[in-house]
Amino acid sequence: MSRRLRLLIAAIGIAALAWLLFAALERALSLAQRFMSLPEGVRWLIGGLLAVIVALGAAAAVWLLRPRKPRAPIVAPDRASLESRIAALRESDADVEELRSELGELDHRRASGSIYLAVFGEISTGKSKLIAALVPGSTPMSDVRGGTTREVAHYEGDAPSGEHWTVADVPGSAEADGDERERMARDEALRAHAVLYVCAGDITRTQAGELRWLGDFGKPLLLVVNKADQWTESEREQLIARLRERSEGIPDAIIAVSAGGEESFTRHLADGSSEDVRRTRRADLGALPDALRRILAPGAAALEGQRENAVLAGLHERTSEKEATWRAVEAERIVRRYARRAIVGAMAAVAPGTDLVIQGALAAGLVRALAALYGVRVTDVEIESLLRQARLTLRTGTSVVLAVAGNALKAFPGLGTLGGGVLHAFAYALIFDSLGRALAASLAERQSLDQADAGARMRDLLGDTGASRLRRLADLTGEALRDR
Ligand SMILES: Nc1nc2c(ncn2[C@@H]2O[C@H](COP(=O)(O)OP(=O)(O)OP(=O)(O)O)[C@@H](O)[C@H]2O)c(=O)[nH]1
Ligand SMILES: [Mg+2]
């Protein structure tokens, strides 16, 4: 487009804008005139309405533009309470070796006085290459294939500040079927004083989630954008601006680097010929050493508190998982014990043809035992109310339960040899199993006695006639009756 044409278009644009402004001004003046000619009461009414609208708009703008509060770092339970939970698990024969060695590692690292840095991020972002550039003499394995690093490895050297440091190379996250390795990587990130989160371009929603997870522990964190050699200067600036927006102020700094990789170019020789050359690109760490010096300046001892907090938070999660597994196994044992007693009780007390009635004392014992297992306090009134509801459920469901028991007797003919009353015995196994499992699942999920939830689960379980469940209950009934 010629310069004169561009000038002409600009002049037309300016004239159009001026005309628009003039029209808007004229309209405003005529509105003002009409406003002034209105009776005073109406003027006040319209003025008041306008003032309310402006005030609401201003409030909305202030709310939208308010500075975001940084998220409060995760607070882990104290060490003593974790140790006693781990000891309790050990008493109950759960495998807690992994938890105890994590505590040991926590102490070992504190005593070593070294600064620990973890390099974390998705597969193939160049974490291992970055470590090779950061720790002279280290040779972590690096490859174009994702999932090259499969174990956590430590490399020791001197940090940019001159202090001794240990840099951890970890498996990359987001690898297909790499859950176990991802967990390893996360645990190692928790054990570090500071973390480099490495990406190689714009971050995905999953990566933003990982960054947030790391940020929640409040330790020094740098977002390192590797493979910067792939972009022009302006692309790099745009990328950093986008990452700044997406990373929500979580990292202490965002730094573009080029950790290595290969480059190819054509070399022109003196005789006029040319050849294609491939060589390893020299690493360019840019502002990374300076940023590392800054975030590690407080030193290992000062950063230890945040590190310990993160490790204990991770341990809390792992301990809770083990507790949940142990409770589930224990709940199963309790339900089985009470179902067995109900089977035996049924043979002793119930004449064939009588209605099915939940044996009160036994059922109350089951509820109490499960509530104690899940650490939920229950009153006698609550137990009575839960059992009243269970009895009501049963009154309408008796025919279903008896039909299931009848089918079980046909499916497992061995039961029939145990004599009359077996039908009821099996029915009680089904009832106690349903009540116990329903309650255990509800207590585990809600951490309280929720009658409606437990009741709904019990109704579902009474109708659950899965083959493996019926076989298990048939075996239990047979066993209980033979051992009687
Ligand atoms: N262009 C370019 N390629 C790089 C750079 N850094 C690493 N690479 C290449 O990226 C690929 C992955 O590098 P790795 O260091 O193995 O990546 P990683 O993050 O450790 O990968 P995993 O161990 O699989 O999680 C390799 O082919 C490297 O050569 C870089 O700065 N620029
Ligand atoms: Mg690697």
Describe this structure in words.
It is built from 15 helices and 8 strands. It has 484 residues and is of the alpha/beta class. The protein has a 6-stranded mixed β-sheet with strand order 2-3-1-4-5-6, sandwiched between helices. The longest helix has 51 residues, at 299-349. It starts with a helix and ends with a helix. 31% of the residues are buried. The structure holds guanosine-5'-triphosphate and magnesium ion.
Quick structural gist:
Helix content is 61%, strand content 10%.
What is CATH's topology name of the largest domain?
Rossmann fold
Q: CATH H-level name of the largest domain... which superfamily?
A: P-loop containing nucleotide triphosphate hydrolases
Please give the count of helices. Answer: 15
Helix content: 55-70%
Task: Write down the overall mean pLDDT.
Answer: 91
Please indicate the percent range of residues in DSSP E strands (runs of 2 or more): 5-15%
Q: What structural category characterises the helix and strand content?
A: alpha/beta
How many extended strands? 8
Q: Mind describing the biggest β-sheet?
A: 6 strands, mixed
Give unreliable regions as ranges.
none
Number of domains: 3
Radius of gyration (Å): 35 Å
Q: Gap between N and C termini, in Å?
A: 101 Å
Q: What's the CATH class label of the largest domain?
A: Alpha Beta
Q: What CATH architecture of the largest domain do you see? A: 3-Layer(aba) Sandwich
The SSE order reads HHHHEHEEHEHEHEEEHHHHHHH
What small-molecule ligands were found? guanosine-5'-triphosphate, magnesium ion
Strand order, biggest sheet?
2-3-1-4-5-6
Coarse morphology: extended
